[in-house]
């Protein structure tokens, strides 16, 4: 059975993608102007820090960030080369590695947040009233709940 989206649904879809692209471009620009690494670096470092030093396997990290596995592998290589993460042999599986954030990675993450947070606020938060932000989160949660709708 084929269902066609309404005009309003198509427009909301287009607006969502345009807003996403625009906001990410503005955040990336702010980070670059401050001489900081790209947002993907922040994303990976944050997930590693959230893991509380036990480390993540690359596939686990891949499940948490929005990168393809191919791009993630290259990114981890760059982060390791810059001393921001380290790979360690996985005790459960000798073929795999655990990836852990280093002290330099922690410092990089901390240095990026003020610029990233300011960019979020100036390009997004400042344009929404509190109740609009709450409503947008509620609507997006409905979209993200793929198990509950069909």
Question: What's the quick description here?
Answer:
With 150 residues, this protein is mainly alpha-helical. It has helices spanning 7-33, 39-50, 58-64, 69-81, 103-123, 130-144; strands spanning 56-57, 85-89, 97-101. Strands 1-3-2 form a three-stranded antiparallel β-sheet.
Describe this structure in words.
Strands 1-3-2 form a 3-stranded antiparallel β-sheet. It is 63% helix and 8% strand. Helix 2 (39-50) crosses helix 5. The two termini are 14 Å apart. The protein is mainly α. The protein has a single domain (23-141), classed as Arc Repressor Mutant, subunit A (Orthogonal Bundle).
Question: What's the CATH topology label?
Answer: Arc Repressor Mutant, subunit A
Task: Provide the residue-averaged pLDDT.
Answer: 90
Gyration radius, in Å: 19 Å
Superfamily at the CATH H level?
A: Winged helix-like DNA-binding domain superfamily/Winged helix DNA-binding domain
CATH class: Mainly Alpha
Largest sheet: 3 strands, antiparallel
- Return residue spans where pLDDT drops below 50 for at least 5 consecutive residues: none
The count of β-strands is 3
Oligomer state equals single chain
Strand content: 5-15%
Strand line-up in the sheet with most strands: 1-3-2
For the record, the CATH architecture stands as: Orthogonal Bundle
How many domains is the backbone divided into?
Answer: 1
Please work out how many helical segments DSSP would assign. Answer: 6
* Share of helix, binned: 55-70%
For the termini, the CA-CA separation is 14 Å
- Taken from the alpha-carbon principal axes, the silhouette is globular
Topology pattern, helix = H, strand = E: HHEHHEEHH
**Category from helices, strands and their pairing:** mainly alpha
